[in-house]
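User: Please run a holo structure prediction.
Assistant: Happy to. Please share the sequence and the ligand.
User: Here you go; the ligand is oxa(dethia)-CoA.
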Amino acid sequence: MTKINALITGVQGYLPEYILTNDELSTMMDTSDEWIMSRIGIKTRHILKGEGLGTSDMAVVAVQKLLEETNTKPEDVDLLICATVTPDMQFPATANIICDKVGITNAFSFDINAACSGFIYSLVTGSKYIESGQYKKVIVVGADKMSSIVDYQDRAVAPIFGDAAGAIMLEPTTEDLGIIDSILRSDGSGRIYLHQKAGGSVKPASHETINAREHYIYQEGQAVFKWAVSKMADVSVEMMERHNISSEELTWLVPHQANMRIIDATAKRMGLQREQVMINIEKYGNTTSGTIPLCLWDYKNELKKGDKLILSAFGGGFTWGSIYVKWGYNAK
Ligand code: UT7
């Protein structure tokens, strides 16, 4: 039987209008553009403002543009997966809400929570449904309103994150293109370094948890940094070795955008030049589930059929992984 691969046939993104600069952050906390640029590499991040607006509102715009780009009717979509750590509400799944708002009525949908690795976990999951032969149009959207869980009194966390959504369409192909291979890993012992203390079943929301600011991101930055640097590179190098891809042969590394120093260290271990790495961290910061589709969106006019891409991420959990993609079409 001919093998079916999952091909990315469209990419879109959405960034909220409001831009939070390092200079504005410096008026809110003891920080500076110089520190943020040299330690993280972020200049600006987009923030979703407005009463009653959440993660689904950003995802909806990205998905609507994706349907337009791929000439797809909402009712023809089979499955929508939303990667997020900032769902509209604890339940139902944000994916269900997105489908309702967009008019995707013949599909099933669910969320995946793998923190900053959410998009790659979801992309692999979506690709398996396509490879089964039963599903023809699968949307994977990565969306996070990180500003809803960032403590703007915590200078070690606030500069890092931004809000955004990115979405891709997966469709079947029998060509040797698309999602070729993946390595996904998790290690829950890493949760002590990066988590949200309250609001879950262990510590439901109370006046005390609010007063203790426990609904915000708790991060021990240096520990996360060390893990990220080694794990992202490990799985990316392993993927190159598995497929005999030399540094020169790899067209693009598409890394999660958490810290410019983590991106540089990963690229160095892979033997890559800066020109082979998709980078937009300076403009958007770490948008968690949004980073990888936003990179593909920003760089899509440079992508050609057959280009070899490695997508790579590390995040809370800990979770990490890499995906080998052979790009499916020339820039439209
Ligand atoms: O996607 C997964 C999500 N997270 C990550 O990937 C984060 C990984 N970690 C990191 O990116 C870095 O650890 C951070 C950017 C969070 C922090 O950078 P760092 O180089 O590890 O700084 P540090 O925590 O070692 O702090 C160095 C100094 C400290 O001052 P003292 O103790 O040396 O006087 C901090 O208090 O920098 C200080 N500092 C700041 N100074 C100015 C921390 N945050 C700031 C700030 N502005 N925003």
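The chain has a mean pLDDT of 98.
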